[in-house]
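User: Hello! I'm new to structural biology and keep hearing that structure can be predicted from sequence alone. Could you demonstrate with NAD(P)H dehydrogenase (Quinone)? Please show me the input and the output so I can see what each looks like.

Assistant: Of course. The first part below is the input, the amino acid sequence of NAD(P)H dehydrogenase (Quinone). The second part is the output, the predicted structure written as tokens.
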Amino acid sequence: MTIAVTGATGQLGRLVIAGLRDRLPSASIVALVRNPAKGADLGVDVRLADYERPETLEKALVGVDKLLIISSNEIGKRAAQHRNVIDAARKAGVKEIVYTSLLHADTSPLSLASEHVATEEALAESGVPHVILRNGWYTENYTGSVPVAVKVGALSGSAGEGRIASATRADLAEAAVAVLTGEGHAGKVYELAGDEAYTLADLAAEISRQTGKDIPCNNLSEADYAAVLKSAGLPEPLALAIASWDAGAAEGALFDDGRQLSALIGRPTTSLKDAVASALRT
């Protein structure tokens, strides 16, 4: 069986490739990338596959049995890009597609949801057996701010009292590997979130505990948080988007307590304590 992974040189993609190599011969793993030179260190078959150049996709998928489509990072272009991959997979005879969607995509208030829903619909229309991994927020989306919070003496956000059941990239990659190398997953939709839900205040308290410093949580309005992000150097559209996603968390968009992720990987998900400790070591 040959398994291919799109976006294989990205942060999640590299973790999935590494996980597959732990379970399968390298010769049965294919890394699909837009720049093959960047995948030279992956230790597997690297093939050119550009989301926006359909002629590269079908060629890259020859002989592939299972395909993991890691969602593109080009917001606004993703639905069309993903459809190109799905169409190419169908033509190439791929037997099963696994897609990384968004937690509760069909009901999520987040602006990101619509492109994921469109992709899920394209998969349904394709007739190719498929699995939907509705990935929750990466814990790193928040712990990436830990060093800055320690430096400035506060953690800011607009998530209010919203509970965030995030999971690390490593946990989500392990779930993808489990599905790709397992059987009986076709037709299923998995809502993947961390076992431990926390608020931004909980995150600030954990940072304080581990550093011995008082790191309060500044819960700001969506507009004020966007302004803070913009002043930190983020482009305005990205600052507005991040603030809106945080505000979505306040509405419960990042919460799930089904524990489907820990069930898939066969262990508890990485704790907030361990994730913060890891961030402080970087």
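User: So the tokens describe the shape?

Assistant: Right, they're a compact way of writing down the 3D structure. Reading them back into a model, for example: The chain has a mean pLDDT of 96.
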